[in-house]
Write a structure and sequence with these properties.
globular, 14 helices, mainly alpha, two-stranded antiparallel ribbon, 361 residues
């Protein structure tokens, strides 16, 4: 919205600032955080009143959670989605199709998560709706987004997968790229969802990943910078830096209330939306594999669950004391703050490795 003020810069030079992605990204960070600081307490009160007992706690999870987390309201992702959406509409260039695609995926995944959270709260059970149905809806949303991304791009680049550390290595998947792109988006959504199990554990790595991809999006969408770094130029994707800024700001605002002991949980509403947003951004800027590096913590959490399920199903033995892996460390005696902060450190290191792929080509 504010982007259009730049059209009047001939009469007021100061308005020319709204043309710059960097300025609007900074504005998005501050605006998103302020929205949550101002309206967060009111939303938490409303969620607590409407939910009563709060988020159902897994009986097969860590027993300490039954004492420390019982009664805490969930669906805090609604706060993040509200802040993110309003901030994007205020600071984003609304003529940019990539903005609407990523916004569609974020809201779509958020609605899927909201329905899942709603069923959990109303049924007082940690089980939501059918996993297969949920994945099907997510895949449909992601598939539509990837098709739009392909149509907007230029063949064969739009259907190709770029490999980090190699400037010219690309594999053209043709229309099979729809399946690949959808897999990346759905995988990212569910990986963040698996990570969201301790106070502050998911939101900070999401902000770290968003900051990393905001920078990559800015460089990828700039012809001069992308040429210098020898990365593939994707016109228009620089605008996604503003959306990543909105995620950082919303994350900071949410962390204020989610810091231990949490006053609110983001629930599937937030974790699916945030993961889907990161996945969609990665597909838009052609850095899908880099997402697996930057979001390596999320990948580890998801893989730990898959390995645990497969091992128990076919051998009757568990690899981890409890999955996802952050619960494994709880069972080993690590305190919650230890796990959370150490996982944050890992997320920072992985982000730095992901950024190094921009130059090591």
């Amino acid at each position: 919205m504010l982007y259009f003020l730049a059209e009047f810069s001939e009469n007021a030079q100061l308005l020319n600032l709204f043309r710059y992605i960097t300025f609007r990204t900074g504005g998005a960070v501050v605006t998103a955080a302020l929205i949550l600081f101002l309206f967060g307490p009111m939303m938490i009160r409303q969620l607590r009143l409407r939910q009563g007992k709060g988020q159902p706690i897994r009986l097969d999870g860590p027993q300490s959670h039954l004492l420390t987390k019982q009664g805490t309201p969930t669906m805090g992702g609604l706060m993040i989605l509200l802040s993110f959406t309003l901030t994007t509409l205020i600071w984003g260039n609304l003529t940019n199709a990539y903005v609407w695609i990523v916004l569609m995926v974020t809201i779509g995944f958020g609605l899927v998560g909201f329905y899942d959270d709603f069923l959990k709260v109303t049924k007082s059970s940690h089980k939501g709706f059918s996993g297969r149905l949920r994945l099907t809806v997510e895949a449909l949303i992601a598939g539509i987004a990837v098709v739009l991304i392909i149509v907007m791009g230029e063949a064969p680049f739009s259907t190709s997968v770029a490999f980090p550390f190699f400037k010219d290595v690309m594999i053209n998947l043709g229309w099979f790229f729809v399946l690949f792109g959808a897999f990346v988006i759905v995988g990212a959504g569910n990986a963040v969802n698996m990570t969201d199990g301790l106070d502050g554990l998911a939101i900070v790595p999401v902000m770290i990943a968003a900051g990393t991809f905001g920078l990559i999006a800015y460089l990828t969408g700039n012809a001069i910078f992308s040429d210098y770094l020898q990365i593939h130029f994707v016109a228009g994707t620089g605008e996604l830096g503003v959306l990543c800024g909105a995620i950082i700001g919303a994350g900071l605002g949410f962390l204020w209330f989610n810091a231990p002991p949490a006053s609110i949980f983001m629930g599937d509403t937030g974790s699916l939306a945030l993961g889907g947003m990161l996945g969609a951004t990665a597909v838009c800027i052609k850095h899908e594999i880099v997402l697996a590096i930057v979001g390596g913590l999320f990948v580890l959490e998801l893989v730990s669950v898959i390995v645990q399920v497969i091992s128990f199903r076919y051998t009757g033995k568990r690899i981890f004391k409890m999955a996802p892996i952050h619960h494994h460390f709880e069972q080993l005696g690590w305190k919650e703050p230890q796990i959370v902060i150490r996982f944050w450190i890992i997320a920072i290191m992985l982000a730095l490795i992901g950024l190094s792929t921009l130059k090591l080509r």
